[in-house]
Predict the structure.
Amino acid sequence: MTQQPWYNLSAEKALAALSSTPDGLAVEEIARRRETYGFNRLPPPARRSALRRFAEQFNNLLIYVLLAAAAVTASLTEWVDTGVIIGVVVINALIGFIQEGKAEHALEAIAGLLSPQAVVKRGGRLITIPAEELVPGDIVLLAPGDRIPADLRLLAVRDLSVDESLLTGESLPVDKHVTAVAEDTVLAERSCMVWSGTLVTYGQGTGIVAATGSATEIGRISRLLADVQTLTTPLLRRMNDFARWLTGAILGLAALTFVGGYFWRDYGAVDMFMAAVGLAVAAIPEGLPAIMTITLAIGVQRMASRNAIIRQLPAVETLGSVTVICSDKTGTLTHNEMSVQGIVAKEIELRVTGSGYDPHGELLCGEQVCETDRYPVVEEIARAGLLCNDADLHQAEDGWRHAGDPTEVALITLAHKAGLEPDFERENWPRTDVIPFAAEYRYMATLHHDHSGHGFIYLKGAPEVVLPRCAFQREAGEDESIDRDFWQASLDHLAAQGQRVLALAFKVASDTQRELDFDDVEGGLTLLGLTGLADPPRAEAIEAVARCHQAGVRVKMITGDHAATARAIGMQMGIGDGENVLTEESLCRMDDDALQHAVEDTDVFARVSPEQKLRLVQALQGNGHVVAMTGDGVNDAPALKRADVGTAMGLKGTDAAKQAAEMVLADDNFASIAAAVEEGRTIYDNIKKSILFILPTNAAEAMVIVAAILMGRLLPITAVQILWVNMITAVTLALSLAFEPPEHGVMRRPPRNPGEPLLSRFLIWRIVFVAAILVAGVFGLFLWERGQGASIEYARTIAVNTLVMFEAFYLLNTRYIREPVLSWHGLFDNPYVWIAIVTVTLFQLLYTYFPPMQLLFSTQPITLEAWGRIVLVSASVFVLVELEKFMLPGHSR
């Protein structure tokens, strides 16, 4: 597409130049333009080449140690040892390369789930589409919180302000208008344009797509909007620091072992060097960082399958520590399919049947269908809700399709049920101007003129905002002085039923008035009536709230609804005590200390503006809580950013909320938050299990060598044999723990203390306990075989197989850290464990009986009777650890 200064053209000329109309493009034209311009997306970010990713696998301390060892063994002409060491280095690098590639691909795929959406007008209809489907000439509607999906030439605006700091560095939002500017105007001052990637902070607007993809300003200067998530978290960094410290300590121990064995026990220098290499290789948990990374990546994929999309990996760890979830009500705890359930006018009260957005239903007075001809105010209420409205509802081949705010869609549905035809009404009473809804003033107003030129204003909004502006009420077709006591009682009645109440009002305007200002709706309006809307709780959300309470996680509901409505929904959800509700008015009167006390005793917050959410998060954090907060609007962004786990709505959330959040709910469902907390706890459990499996087995390998040197014995296991054991168990046994399902009691435990050390006293005890069992078994069986006259090669073959079988039995223990595994679930509900055990057993049979392996590792075939002793001895770890679990139930996790 030719680049031209669209900002220098009037709105009409821009429309003409792009061959479009205010009603948008036709379907066939969209297909043609996509062929010409492609999809609206930027080139993918530069990725590391496969060769570079493979080379980076060698960049760690352990590999340096192994390569140095290989160089020395080569200089000593120990070619078999040199070949095995280099082989292990290459195989470990391949494993890391494959695992890291899978993790990157998984996270990139998940990032793709967060594709921005755009509201466009095509063929005269409003529809929501993925932003990448936009083509030049599309008509796009903008609202607060939207991330602008392409470069747009503005056609109409209403108090539109845009944050362009991403592109221009301008710290303050920029006011926009539709007037063309000079061709030499600098980018930051092209105020009739909005740019891809920037953010709507206030007001509304309509624009025509002038450039897409790499043709946009942000594409031209190669400023990418998103990158692949970095595979690191505080936990991984702590583990890397721990590994470096441990590596230094082990190298020091290896050096002392060399010195002690050479000078004190009179071993040969070559033998002691190989022993020191073996000790270092044995003790360093080289596979642990890779196992932890793949555990996190698998957990993120599992969360995505449960509709919780992780944008930042540290949130995975934090989820396991969450103590409070602050949740929106509408669409999160409820279905977000509002329907008008009741109408109150001064002369009549109606019940409305039907649910959701299917406009089949009736208006009932008692049990009789209401005759709207007798009560024209009912039709007027329905018309007000239809015309003072920015949503769309129309029938398509697959059912009723909608776009816009759920409350407004419900009002269109009511109009259908009242017998009004929306297209006819809009044509008969066209809109002239609008004050769009905003959270600050909680109402919307529209100015209309009929075809005779008569003007009037409709206002809809929160009753406490609308009622003070009304001096009259509609009764029997006449305007009477308003009866405020009646309306307050009606409001309380509807709200007590858990319904969200909207007030609708009317005012005559001048025939010549063409603009609507805030002053026009400050007073003198006529109240038409109230509508009560219901959004029923999700059954799965009620169950999820109960599970969170079991898990020691408090759930607090924060809503913009009336206090009585919030109380009723809270009781249905099991949130709060049914009485104690705090409103924004109460919150504003509290200082920070008072608020910190109040948030501990209150679980339902009503009529809360997005600005107050930030105070609530800070108060909870001040009390030591780890807070997950949900939000969907641009004004929720500060609270989402401040929360420990900000959670944005994937369906109804603005791009501003998604950008500020660590997690996005693909289905806007509270049950997905509870599922994410469960997965977060499971991932942390699985990482602890990996640590608990790898460290004692590595420690045992090292201590076997130290024990042999201290006793002046031949080494039960050589360095190359240890390399074999570490390599084969890391890719089989240890990796299977990454696939562990949630433990049955995971949501009945209290939240994890985020400050707990990586290695608790209990974990250190378990590591020492298991390492001692393995050392005694491996070294004891080696000495017994030597005492029976076995050759050193035969005894070492026994020792290596005993060590691997010890690890296989201990893997079963590790599946549950504190609970016994002697049950069907404990032994068999992770098939990967048994696949790993069978696989490692087959590898050990090759190691023992395959001639090339015998040559490489100096092994000998062993008898069936020897295998019996190996299994008997190695099974002892399973029995002893299960006994330890039984005898020490008081240890905390």
DSSP finds 31 helices and 28 strands in the chain. Residues 222-232 have pLDDT under 50 and may be disordered. The CA atoms of residues 808 and 837 lie 6 Å apart. The longest strand covers residues 151-163.
